[in-house]
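Onboarding guide, step 5: your first structure request.
Type a short instruction followed by the sequence, for example:

Predict the 3D structure of this protein.
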Amino acid sequence: MSEAALGSKLKASSTQSTRYVLKSGYVTKMGQVVKNWKTRYLILYSDGMMYYYKREVPPDSDDKPQGEINITKDCIGILTAKQVTSNGLIKWPEDAGPNTGFAIETRSGRTYFLHCESWREAERWIASIAGTAPNVRFEDGGDAVHAILQSRPSVRKPGEHKSQVDLTPDLPAAEVDEEGNEVCYVHKVVGGVVIKEKHIR
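The system replies with structure tokens like these:
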């Protein structure tokens, strides 16, 4: 293996070892060419990379994804299900519940349409994606998405891929939540809104 190839491999390995999963789970995604709906497993990492697979895979799997989106660099817009419908962009599946969908607009001009099993899960995805999309713009000035961010701070599930970066807690000492987990809180600004994040230690 050449030095350049070895260096690239080591760099990729280093990047994967320092990032962690922000959110993962099954969604239903509209195809780009054939406009049908298929179940996909999404993984969003802390570095802003999102991958989707045909089935559930472990973090940083060697399995080839069906596709990927660089949310940090390429996401320029997030639409709620109501905004998608009001703009007449697509028709949601008949079995999709109210407010269970969302859309990701990218620099390439492609828009990804996805829907979840519940509106709560859709809001979790919207909040997670918005937190890694510094270039995102909002059709309504951000009111719809900001309301979601304010009501649903990002929460990592206990035992899921703990961040390897240092966190500066806003509280002098950790608290213990109702599940017995030691937690701390960190504030950050997303789209002009201060978001309080809960982190499991």
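Each response can be followed by summary notes, for example: Residues 3-18 form the longest helix (16 residues).
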